[in-house]
Specification:
Blueprint (H helix, E strand, L loop, with lengths): L1 E2 L6 E5 L2 E4 H46 L6 H43 L9 H10 L7 H30 L7 H7 L7 H21 L13 H8 L1 H4 L3
Antiparallel strand pairs: 1-2, 2-3
Helix pairs in contact: 1-2, 1-4, 2-3, 2-4, 4-6
Length: 242
């Protein structure tokens, strides 16, 4: 920042252009509004994917339990369909985090700093924002996004599907009386009950394993963290992060 020829109006130097403070602020506010709009759009896309998962899970459960001759395999197929929705939502979450990261940089270092004189934004925040614009990179990994979306929403959907599948095999067409009978009812076509139950158990174990092992991954700028954690996310070079 320098002073203009009049000695009164500060200007923003950029190559051969001299932008006044008011011009820079106007451009910056429009940029901030654009990033908020982007984050809102991708936030809505996250909710849309969750809605798809809930609707398809509800439809599969209703169909399977509505009549004794409806096959339980519908629920098994739905498990893998919901897993596909989980992957799509995790990918969308990474895009959401990119826009949220930029918005948090501006909120913490531009707007918040203006409210608490003297104006003391964190060092290098503008460089980090410019680097994100020139070389966009996802702030979080796919594993973190998968684990977080699973813990927040999809774990309950999967548990409901598994509980409904067990209820279906226990109660329809008649109540089972032995463990062997329950295993036999788990068969799907040429696949025996042991294979089907084993695949379902392995599948669920992998999902919950991802959900548990990714708990320490917390690089999300769109989350609500304590002050020290937020500083590490927004300014990792200052706080000693990666």
């Amino acid at each position: 920042m320098t002073q203009s020829q009049t000695g009164r109006e500060p200007i923003w130097k950029f190559r051969d252009l001299d932008l006044k403070t008011s011009e820079f602020n106007t451009a910056f506010v429009h940029f901030y509004r654009a990033e908020i709009q982007r984050s809102n759009v991708w936030r809505q896309r996250l909710d849309a994917t969750t809605n798809w998962a809930i609707i398809t899970a509800g439809a599969a459960i209703s169909f399977s339990l509505s009549a004794s001759d409806h096959h339980h395999g519908v629920i098994i197929i739905n498990l893998f369909l919901i897993a596909l929705f989980l992957f799509i939502e995790a990918r969308r979450d990474r895009y959401y985090e990119l826009w949220a990261y930029r918005a948090r940089l501006m909120e913490c270092n531009y707007f918040a700093a203006m409210l608490v004189p003297p104006h003391e934004p964190s060092p290098q925040w503008a460089e980090r924002l410019a680097d994100s614009l020139r070389h966009p990179q996802f702030p979080i990994s796919l594993w973190e996004a998968l684990g977080r979306r699973f813990r927040r929403n999809y774990s309950w959907i999967f548990l409901t599907l598994i509980a409904s599948w067990i209820l279906k095999n226990i109660t329809q067409p008649t109540a089972v009386t032995t463990w062997e009978e329950f295993i036999a009812r788990g068969a799907i076509g040429p696949l025996s009950g042991e294979i089907v139950i084993g695949v379902v158990a392995l599948f669920m174990s992998l999902l919950f394993g991802v959900g548990l092992l990714t708990i320490p991954l917390r690089h999300s700028a769109g989350e609500v963290f304590d002050r020290s954690r937020l500083d590490q996310i927004i300014n990792p070079r200052i706080s000693g992060g990666d």
